[in-house]
């Protein structure tokens, strides 16, 4: 990937030193429960107000007039105006048998109309102290359905994620410190049922975050493939292709990237068969460069440690397959990830080399740091040839150019199919994992023509994201296809209410929503 972001990572371990199940990684004492509205007698009590500083009628009746008056007086003293995402805490509130009364603002009508319940759940989790907190989900001017309650619970869980397994001394202020969150709702049974389908999504996001956060000396191609293999516990069929199998298939573009490392490459094929037996599958493909030094075209040293995250596309695919299998999605799904390490040893490929891909097309290597498209080229061809999918979506931290265009707010979307693009855009709006369609046309395809081969792997700075996508398009045939360039959204991610870490697990919720809305029987 032609991009070097900035953030550090813990090191000091040898390959294979650490391996645990994801369940161990996520284990802490934080729990979420659902109960009917009723009197709260201990811990934190969380309520909501609009910009008029008034809680809902039901909450006001529960708190009593003195407590409602206390909110108004405290708001005046604290200059709290009930704006969206603002909050105020009242310690040992008079006439209430709780430790703290936490008041969260929802803003005006416009703010409330566009409320993101997942983000609200993260906001709530960030405002409580741990131990026990009861959240009265009777929001002024907002209908809170069981699905909305489930999204709030999901957001709270996502906020609690942290990656500290290599710290010998834990931070006392870390968000992951246990406790219990009780959501007080009108219909606890319905909310609990709705949340059941969110648990696999939360776990899938955590899996993707864990994989991206892992240090590269622990997570090589073989170790990554072993993590994918663990999905077999959920009924996912997993097949691992090693160097020998890939060489037999002619995956020379992928192998060309891998040959500079002492750690061989792998391709992991994951199949979830939850649909009808005769239904063609849908397919998700992920770039999995576990560490990208740039190869012979080596990157600058500053920030190179972040290149452990150049496998966020593959991490998303593994997390997505976990989510789909956990909720027993009624769809046939293929997940395929190409796993390599891009290193500059004496056996590494050089600028000027020409490789023959599995498709038979040839690629001239101009820049060995434009390696992700070589990995994806062979995996895309393999998937479309073997599985004949309804569509393919690939995810890759592919270009720094996409950050220049979209910063860290959107993933770049390139596609040969309008319907698939529109559905991805809608799923992005629904989940907050937003995509923006970028140009893909014959002009960019012409820019990657080579004097010596069928194409070259880099066409220079201008239109770098589009020329990379143009190369990938040559390996999809006529299959409906979308490419998501996630270099800005999946690692070094901006902090949100549901993500305070370096890796966001971006794409798991987006693609689960896409499948749920359009591709289940």
TrEMBL record:
Binds 2 manganese ions per subunit. Keywords: Aminopeptidase, Cytoplasm, Hydrolase, Manganese, Metal-binding, Protease. It holds the Pfam family Peptidase_M17_N. GO terms for biological process: proteolysis. InterPro entries: Leucine_aapep/pepB, Macro_dom-like, Peptidase_M17_C, Peptidase_M17_leu_NH2_pept, Peptidase_M17_N. It is found in: Cytoplasm. One of its GO terms (cellular component) is cytoplasm. Residues 367-374 form the Cytosol aminopeptidase domain. Mn(2+) 2 binds at residues 287, 292, 310, 371. Mn(2+) 1 binds at residues 292, 369, 371. Signal peptide: none annotated. Its main location: cytoplasm. One of its GO terms (molecular function) is metalloaminopeptidase activity. The active site is at residues 299, 373. Presumably involved in the processing and regular turnover of intracellular proteins. Catalyzes the removal of unsubstituted N-terminal amino acids from various peptides. Belongs to the peptidase M17 family. This is Probable cytosol aminopeptidase. It comes from Microvirga lotononidis.
